[in-house]
Amino acid sequence: MSNFFLLHEAVQFKQYEQFKDGFKDLISIEKENNDVFLRHDSFWNLSHIEELYLNYSSQEESVICKFIEQFDSSDSYFNNSADFDEYFQDYDNGFLGVDFSETEIQQNRQVKNNNDYLNFNETFLWNVNFRNFWIKKERLYPNLIMCGEVQNQIAQIGNSGYFNQIIERLKEFNLAISNWTSGNFSYRDINRKYALRISPESDKTMDKYGNERICQLPNGGTDFFELHIKTGDLRFHFLPDNQTQKVYVGYIGPHLSTISN
């Protein structure tokens, strides 16, 4: 999830037409559901707001008004990235506006239209840590469905050397699953094409320790997550869905018990 704050300094113009034309680009933004657009209530005191609402019957003005009214209200006003990031730690934070030439907002934080918005989310997508991993997981790995206790397991791993290994290995796995478009899941095919070490458990291990590989599914049920990826001391246990060509990831953590240990 990203936050975008409407910066007053970047939407103030002497001429009303400049103000309105600038907002035409802003309203073109196709906001993703998890993102948040913010404004401070002092926005209503800016010049041209009264004129904007006096022309509410016009289609252009009406669309702009409705766009602004959908913003969430912020108790604080932010005019720099440091304060914004301090308030919303572990989130990606950008600024909405029309003309940033008189501001000190970094170029990659300026969002003036839909292209800027898409570029912002692409640029900051992989700015990920163990705190915002769960917020970003769908964007990072659209073909992997995190379930079970993965959220808590990532939090326990925290800012350790393992975290970057997890991010990169899941990235490779998500790419592999994105190319699974037909037929049943084959871990052997993936092992041949990608730098992944996927294997099932032995029958003896499943007989004795299979209960350690039972994970919760998003629908509330449970299943055995036998297949796993080996990464050093870590294991990623997962369950492929042959109907959707998606994969449920139910465990990320230390090596589980096997018959050999």
Structural class: alpha/beta
What count of helical segments does DSSP give?
10
Number of extended strands: 12
Helix content: 25-40%
Terminal CA distance: 41 Å
Give the percentage of residues in beta strands: 15-25%
Low-confidence residue ranges? none
User: Could you say how many structural domains there are in total?
Assistant: 2
Shape: elongated
Sequence of secondary-structure elements: EHEHHEHEEHHEHHHEHEEEEE
How would you describe this structure to a colleague?
The two termini are 41 Å apart. With 261 residues, this protein is α/β, with parallel strands linked by helices. The protein is 36% helix and 20% strand.
Feature tags:
5-stranded parallel beta sheet; 10 helices; 12 strands; 5-stranded mixed beta sheet; 36% helix; single chain; alpha/beta; 261 residues
Strand and helix map with partners:
Elements: E1 2-6, H1 16-26, E2 36-40, H2 49-54, H3 59-69, E3 72-74, H4 81-87, E4 92-96, E5 110-111, H5 114-124, H6 133-140, E6 144-146, H7 150-157, H8 161-178, H9 187-193, E7 198-199, H10 203-209, E8 214-216, E9 222-224, E10 227-231, E11 234-241, E12 246-254
Parallel strand pairs: 1-2, 1-4, 2-3, 4-5, 6-12
Antiparallel strand pairs: 7-10, 8-9, 10-11, 11-12
Task: Please outline what is shown here.
Helices cover 36% and strands 20% of the residues. It has helices at 16-26, 49-54, 59-69, 81-87, 114-124, 133-140, 150-157, 161-178, 187-193, 203-209; strands at residues 2-6, 36-40, 72-74, 92-96, 110-111, 144-146, 198-199, 214-216, 222-224, 227-231, 234-241, 246-254. It has a 5-stranded parallel beta sheet, with helices on both faces. Strands 6-12-11-10-7 form a 5-stranded mixed beta sheet. A two-stranded antiparallel sheet has the order 8-9.
